[in-house]
Amino acid sequence: MVDVERRSALAGLLCAGSAGLAGFASSSPAAAAAAAPAPARPARPAAGPRPPASLLGDEIRRLPTSRKVLALTFNAAWDVDGIDTVLAELRRRRLPATFFPTGTFAEARPAAVRSIADAGHGLGNHSYSHPYFRNLSTTERGDEVRAADEAIRAAAGTEPLPFFRFPYSATTPDAIADVNDLGYAAIEFSADTNGYLGPQGGMSVDKAVERAVDAFAPGAIIQMHVGSNGAGVVLDAEALPLIVDAAVADGYEVVDLRQFLVASAQR
Fold it and tell me: Could you read off the pLDDT of 220-229 as tens digits, one per residue?
C-alpha cells in the first residue's frame, strides 16, 4: 500500500484535478496487425525486434529495471467509448502507451485500432476471441495468437509488437511456453485499476487511481481498459490524468514497452 506521504499527495491530486504536466518524450511509431483467422504464416516475422531473454520464460508483471519508470497499458476487447479520450490525453502529455486489442475487436473496430497505430502507440496481442488459454491445446493457442495477429495487422496497417497478454491474466507455465515459442513475451501487469468494472461494479475514479498508485515501483506495468463494458462510463479514461499526475509527483517516468525489445541478432 502507498505510504502516508504518497496518500497525502494523491489526495491533493484528486482534489486539484488533472493539471497538465509535460516533459515525457513522444513515442515512436507503433506496430499492429494482419488479416483474419486463417493463419498460414508464423505469428512474428523473423526480422523484427524481439523480446530479450529477460522477458521470456515467465509472465512479466514488472519490467526488468531498477529505474523509477512505469508503463501504461490498455486492453481493448469490447466498445470504443474511452479511446478518443485516452488518445487525446496521451497526446497532450506526449506519453507512450501499449494497447492490447483482441482480434475480434480489431475486426469489429478497425478504425479504432488504426487510430491507435496512427498516434504512434504500440499494439500487442490479447488473443483472437479472449478464451481461457489453460483450456486450449498448444495448437489452439497458436491459432488464437496468429488469428489475432492477422486481424490487428489488417486493421492497423502496421506490424504488431511481440507482446502477448493473456485473457483474464490466466497464465499457466505451459501456455507461457507456447506463447514464447511463437516469439511473444507474456506481458501481464503489476496492477489492474479495475476501472472496467464501472460504478455498477463498485468502482470509482478515485479507487482506480489508488489501485494504480499502490502499485508504483520500478518497472511497474499498469493495466487499464478503453471500454465502458456497456455502461457508457469509462473510469480509466477519467483516471488516466490523475494517475500520470501521481506518477510525476512521485518521480516516475512513463516509458514505452518497446524500449525493452532488442534486434533479432541480439537475442
Answer: 999 999 998 7
